[in-house]
Structures are given as C-alpha cells and as structure tokens.
Amino acid sequence: MTVAATAAEARERRRGIVFDLMVLDIMMPGENGLQLTTALRGDNDHVPVLILSALAAAPDRIAGLATGSDDYLSKPFEPQELLLRIHNLLRRVPPPSQIREDIRFGAFNFHVQRGELRKGSELVKLTSREKEFLRILTQRAGNPVPRSELAQPGSEESARSVDVQINRLRQKIEADPSAPVFLQTVRGAGYVLHPD
C-alpha cells in the first residue's frame, strides 16, 4: 500500500509503480480528488478509483461518479464495507498482464482502451454506457458477468435498466438481436461475450 497526501505526490508515486486501485479523498490540498480522477480518465488511464469522502450528499456522490470514478463511499464508513468494495472493484478488473487491447467478434473489433468499436473499417457509434459495458464484458470474455457488476456503482440502476442497455448494444452488434451469437444471456448468471 502506498499513501500520498496530495495529487502531485500521488502522480509522482505512480511514475514508478503500477497501481491496482486508487482510493481518493475529494478534499486534498491543491488539485482535489475529482480533478485528479478527471485527469486520469482524460489520459485514458483506467486504474480503478474509489472516492472516499466526507461529502455525502447525493449531488456530491453524483459529481464523484461523473468524473469516471468506479465507486463512491462517504465517511464515516464501516471498514468492512470499504474492504468489500475494494475487493469487488479488483475482481472486475483483470491484472494488467491479462488486459487485451483489441477483442474481435465476428466482423467487429473493439479497442478496449480507446473504447472504439469498428465493423471492418467503419466506426460504430457507442454511448458511454455501451463502451463501459463492452470494456467489462471484453475483459471477462467467455465468462458470465452478473447484472450487478454492470450496474453503475453507487447508483440505484436496476437489473431492468441493465437489460435495456444490453438490448441496445445487441442492436448494434448482432445480425439478429433476438437470437444473439456474441452477447448472450446466461440464465441466473448475467451476460457473456463470446469473442472469436
């Protein structure tokens, strides 16, 4: 575990270490946690970020998640809950050595880091949620991903809402969305993406 008192110090420590996850406070001197998270995402850095903050109102939590953080926990908190949230985030993200840049399925190619889906040379337009779904599904390709892991952390997003997003994604990648070949439902387990 590495500790940094400021965003500048965190950046310096990250130069020599690959972090599995970052726990950030919002109220840091200088650049705050929201600004640091926004900068990380702007640099296409997908290190999981959990924001831990005394700012507990709904607008604060929404602002935190809107920066691209993966989860938000307000203080005071139960240490066991923090450990469980960290464990869940780490379980979603494979070790860097296993992360693939491109995933192919049928005529499609998804570039994980850029969030670009192409059918041949043609760019397929995706919403930010569709990109997020594909990132999670491609990194767990061949294995079912529960609906709860596709729902936005800290949100009240329902299983039905996840199903709607999956159906929209199928409209873009399946020849027959009612009989999917690549993005299939696994009864009682969630969804699985079958790459080539």
| Annotated CATH topology of the largest domain | Arc Repressor Mutant, subunit A
Q: What overall geometry do the principal axes of the alpha carbons give?
A: globular
Strand runs, count: 9
Helix content estimate? 25-40%
Q: Give the class from helix and strand content and strand pairing.
A: alpha/beta
For the terminal residues, how far apart are their CA atoms? Answer: 38 Å
- The CATH architecture of the largest domain: Orthogonal Bundle
Which strand order does the major sheet show? 4-5-6-7
Largest sheet, described in full? Answer: 4 strands, antiparallel
CATH superfamily of the largest domain: Winged helix-like DNA-binding domain superfamily/Winged helix DNA-binding domain
How large is the radius of gyration? 18 Å
Average of per-residue pLDDT values: 85
Characterization of the model:
- By secondary structure, the chain is α/β, with parallel strands linked by helices.
- It has 2 domains: 7-93, Response regulator (Rossmann fold); 100-193, Arc Repressor Mutant, subunit A, CATH 1.10.10.
- Helices cover 37% and strands 18% of the residues.
- It contains 7 helices and 9 strands, in the order αβαβαβαββββαααββ.
- Strands 4-5-6-7 form a 4-stranded antiparallel sheet, with helices on one face.
- The longest helix has 15 residues, at 159-173.
- The mean pLDDT is 85.
